[in-house]
Amino acid sequence: YGKNTIKFLRLHREGKKHFVKEVEVCAHLRLTSPQEYLEGNNSLVIPTDTIKNIVLVLAKKNGIPSLEQFAIDICNHFMTTFCQVAYVKTYVQEVPWQRLYEDGVPHIHSFICVPDGIRFCEAEQCRNGPLIVFAGIKDLKLMKTTQSGFEGFYKNEHTTLPERHDRILCGELFCKWSYGECKDFDFDCIWKKIRECILEAFAGPPDCGEYSPSYQKTVNCIQMLVLSRVSQVQVIEVVLNNTFYNVVDMKNLGLNNDKEVLVPVEAPYGSCACTLGRKKFFEA
């Protein structure tokens, strides 16, 4: 049991310069005894209102040095404070506020919300067990207008999809990775590096791009690049929900529409998912 959707803004001041972190937290506990379920005995139950207040107090006292560290702080607090807690899991996601710049100059106290993917993390721990940390990015919308196709797929009497060697590749990406047991990582630096890998693998070189024969291959390229460059990542899951665009037929309007005006296909949409990890992690 626990408390969901604990939303707050943490404001930090360094002289005249302000820093903000707006987050949403979910904190769940499992107790050593199920007596509150089986017997209606609430003597071990930590009220969810107390859970909420603890999260807010930790934000006030410790700040949010990184999402991952804040999730770790929450786990550590419940494990060290309450002997009746057998397991704790914390989820934290961030509202994407970025500092506002005017003519290249960073503003000291103004910010803009940029929806270019939402950062999140999870931390979980069993009593006498290791602290496990996950991190990720979701709602990251990506598009490339060429260098994508889909050909040579299986066909039968139900197949109506034509083969395409040049199409728009567009989708909303969810990516989650595991660090394994928690160590003293620079979580902010690693998250930024992984995000850069995702964008590079999706788009290819800036002057020419890179051909994608399928959404599935693009998913795998993202995973392989992350695992090759970020040694701290043990397992990575990627889900790519596809958005398709159809060319508008303008012949009745006397126009030849050479893939210049397209409309999105809202539903149904395709989805590709894959989990990839290091062999030593799965063997362990």
Automatic annotation (TrEMBL):
<keyword id="KW-0560">Oxidoreductase</keyword>
<dbReference type="GO" id="GO:0005777">
    <property type="term" value="C:peroxisome"/>
</dbReference>
<dbReference type="Pfam" id="PF01014">
    <property type="entry name" value="Uricase"/>
</dbReference>
<comment type="similarity">
    <text>Belongs to the uricase family.</text>
</comment>
<feature type="binding site">
    <location>
        <position position="48"/>
    </location>
    <ligand>
        <name>O2</name>
    </ligand>
</feature>
<comment type="function">
    <text>Catalyzes the oxidation of uric acid to 5-hydroxyisourate, which is further processed to form (S)-allantoin.</text>
</comment>
<feature type="binding site">
    <location>
        <position position="49"/>
    </location>
    <ligand>
        <name>5-hydroxyisourate</name>
    </ligand>
</feature>
<feature type="binding site">
    <location>
        <position position="49"/>
    </location>
    <ligand>
        <name>urate</name>
    </ligand>
</feature>
<feature type="binding site">
    <location>
        <position position="242"/>
    </location>
    <ligand>
        <name>O2</name>
    </ligand>
</feature>
<feature type="binding site">
    <location>
        <position position="150"/>
    </location>
    <ligand>
        <name>urate</name>
    </ligand>
</feature>
<feature type="binding site">
    <location>
        <position position="167"/>
    </location>
    <ligand>
        <name>5-hydroxyisourate</name>
    </ligand>
</feature>
<feature type="binding site">
    <location>
        <position position="150"/>
    </location>
    <ligand>
        <name>5-hydroxyisourate</name>
    </ligand>
</feature>
<keyword id="KW-0576">Peroxisome</keyword>
<protein>
    <recommendedName>
        <fullName>Uricase</fullName>
        <ecNumber>1.7.3.3</ecNumber>
    </recommendedName>
</protein>
<keyword id="KW-0659">Purine metabolism</keyword>
<feature type="binding site">
    <location>
        <position position="167"/>
    </location>
    <ligand>
        <name>urate</name>
    </ligand>
</feature>
<dbReference type="GO" id="GO:0004846">
    <property type="term" value="F:urate oxidase activity"/>
</dbReference>
<dbReference type="InterPro" id="IPR002042">
    <property type="entry name" value="Uricase"/>
</dbReference>
<comment type="pathway">
    <text>Purine metabolism; urate degradation; (S)-allantoin from urate: step 1/3.</text>
</comment>
<feature type="binding site">
    <location>
        <position position="216"/>
    </location>
    <ligand>
        <name>urate</name>
    </ligand>
</feature>
<feature type="binding site">
    <location>
        <position position="242"/>
    </location>
    <ligand>
        <name>urate</name>
    </ligand>
</feature>
<feature type="binding site">
    <location>
        <position position="216"/>
    </location>
    <ligand>
        <name>5-hydroxyisourate</name>
    </ligand>
</feature>
<dbReference type="GO" id="GO:0006145">
    <property type="term" value="P:purine nucleobase catabolic process"/>
</dbReference>
<dbReference type="GO" id="GO:0019628">
    <property type="term" value="P:urate catabolic process"/>
</dbReference>
<feature type="binding site">
    <location>
        <position position="48"/>
    </location>
    <ligand>
        <name>5-hydroxyisourate</name>
    </ligand>
</feature>
<feature type="binding site">
    <location>
        <position position="48"/>
    </location>
    <ligand>
        <name>urate</name>
    </ligand>
</feature>
<feature type="binding site">
    <location>
        <position position="242"/>
    </location>
    <ligand>
        <name>5-hydroxyisourate</name>
    </ligand>
</feature>
